[in-house]
Every structure is written in structure tokens, then in C-alpha cells.
Protein: Transposase DDE domain-containing protein
Amino acid sequence: MDETTGTIYRRRKIEVEPAFGHLKAHLAFHRFHLRGKLGAKIDVGLALMALNLRKLGKHME
Structure:
């Protein structure tokens, strides 16, 4: 693995993975409930909106 690939993986671990881990652990997002690509996009969009609303609620307290 070259240096740039290692940098990308290290950055991804910090930026992307915690959000999906939080969705799975705290918001019970374990599977898609709608069919097809559009359904998957809708499911992920709703889950991410719920995550963002939760963050917004914490900031407004």
C-alpha cells in the first residue's frame, strides 16, 4: 500500500465510519426496507436526516 492510499484510509476511518456506526448502534439502521436503488437512496436519506436532526437538537439545547 502506498502513502496516498494509507492517507485515504486513515481519513476515511475518521470522517465516514463513525457516522455509519452511530446509525447502526443508536438509530437501529441495520437493513434497507425499500427495494431498488431509489429505495436504498430514500432509506439512507431518511436515516441521515434523522442523524442530522438529532445533532441539531443537541446543539439547540
About this structure: DSSP finds three helices and no strands in the chain. The mean pLDDT is 83. Helices lie at 3-15, 17-26, 36-60. Residues 3-60 form one domain.
